[in-house]
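User: Hi! Is it possible to get a structure for several chains at once, not just one? Here's what I have:
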Amino acid sequence: MKDFILLFRQPDYDHLHLSPEAMEALKQQWQDWIGGIAAQDKLAGRGPRLSQEGKVLKAGGVITDGPFVEIRERLGGFIMIKAASEEEAITLAHGCPALASAGSVEIRAIS
Amino acid sequence: MKAADISLKQLFQQEFAKMVAVISNKFGLAHIETAEDIVSETFLTAAENWETKGIPPNPAAWLYTVAKQKTLYHFRRNKILEQKVMPALTARQESTEEANLDFSHENIKDSQLQMLFAVCDPVIASEAQIGLALRILCGFGIEEIAEAFLSNKETINKRLFRAKEKLRTAGLKMELPPASQLSARLDNVLHIIYLLFSEGYYSQTQNEILRKDLCLEALRLGLMLTAAELTNLPKTNALIALMCFHASRFDAREAGDGRVVLYEEQDETLWDTALISQGIHFLDLSARGSEVSSYHLEARIAYWHCMKEDAAEKWEQILQLYNQLLQINYSPSVALNRTFALYKANGREAALIEAEKLKLEHNHFYFLLLAELYKEIDPEKALRHLKQAYSLAKTQTEQQGIREKIDRLSA
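Assistant: Yes, the chains can be modeled jointly so their relative placement is included. Here is the combined structure:
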C-alpha cells in the first residue's frame, strides 16, 4: 500500500448563490464519496478544507489574489488515500463530485 | 433466588465498590488487595449476623461500622509487623493509628471517581482493565466475570492479580489527573466504559441478567463522571446518551432463549421510553462545545434508530453519520452498517456497487449483507452468499439464524 494525495480542482463558482438544500445535497455527495473510500479502509487522512480566497506569490515579489485569474480551476481541497497502485488510486478517484461540476482530480503519489 | 437474596447481592455490588474505594483512598492503592479482603470479611460477618438477627434498618451504615473496625484492626496489627520489617514507612501510613474512615457521601463519590481513573490508567493492559473495573468498581464476583468473558476463574484471577500488581508497581495514586492531562486520561476512562457496555450488549454469554447488569453498571460509571465538573464534558454526555439509547432496546432484543431479536423484528412497545428520554437529554448536553467524538456520532445514529418508521430522512441522516464515523474510526462493522444505511437511503443498486468493493471475505456479516442486497434481484447469488456466511459463522445461534434464512430463500 502506498499513500496518494487526491487534489480537487474545481471551477471557481460562488457557493453563496446555492440554496441551503442544494448546499446540503452537495455536501452529501462529497460525504458519500469519501465515506465509500473510508468504508474500504483506504482513507489515509483528510486534508483541511481550503478557504475560498488565497494569495499567490510570484517571482519578483508579485502577489496576486489567487490562481483564478489565470487558470480556469482552483484547488478546492484534498484527501489522502491508501492504494496498492496508481491504477487503484485512479479507480478510487472515480465518482468524486468535483468531476460532476466540470472539475478534475489530480492523483499524486506521496513518497 | 429469593427477594432478600437479590437485595443482598445488590447491596454487595453497590457497597463493595464504595468501601474498597474509600479504604484504598485512605491507605493507598498498594493496599487494594487488603481493602478487598477487609470488605469481603465485612460481608461475611454481615451474612452470618443478619441470618440470625435479620437485616438491620440501615444496612449500609452497619457495613461501614464493621468495615471501619476491621480496617483499624488490620492496619494496627500490621503496623507492628511493618515497623519491624520496613522501618521507613511513608507519612501516609504512619497516621493509620488514628485513621478513621470517612464514609460520607462526598468522600465515597470522590474516592470512586479517583478509583475509576486509577483502574483505567493506560499502564494496565486493556484486557485486564475491564475485569478489574468489574471487580473493583462494580463489585462483580470472579465467577460472574469469568462467565461474562466465557473464561474460567483461574484465568480471571491471574489476570486480576497481574493488574493489581501493576497498580502497585507503577506507583499509581488515588487522585484525579492534573488538568493538563485530564482530557486525554478521560478518553481512556470513556473507552473502558464503552468496552464494558459493549461487553454486556454483545456478549456471547447466555445469561441475560448478567448482560443487562454489565450494561447498567457501565451506565452508572458514566453517570458518575457527570457528578464532577471536570469530567462532565460533552463527550462524556455523548457516551451516556449512546448507552441510554442502546439500553432502551434491551428487553425488546431478548428472545428469551439467548438469541437476539434483530432490530427490524423488534416490538417497539418494549422499548424503554424513559431511557430514550434520558438519552435525548444527554444528547442535548453533548452538543455544547465544538468537539465531535465518535461517541457523538454513534449516539446520533442510535438516536435515529429509536424511530422505528423508515422515513427517508432517517436513513439519509444515518448514512451521513456513518460516513463521518468511518473517517475518524474505521472498523469493518461500521463499513457494513454504512453500506446498509446506503441501501436504505439510496436503494439496492447504489449499495450493491459499494458493497462489492468492501471485500471483507472473512466476515460472515459481509455475506449476510450481500445476500440481503441480492435477495430480490438474484436469489441464486443470494443463496451462495448465505452459504458462505454459514460456513464463516462462529456460534451455533448464528448458524441457526442463517440456516433459517437459507430455508426461507430456498422454499
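The radius of gyration of chain A is 15 Å. Chain A touches chain B at residues 28, 31-32, 34-36, 38-41, 43, 46 (CB under 8 Å).

User: Great, thank you!
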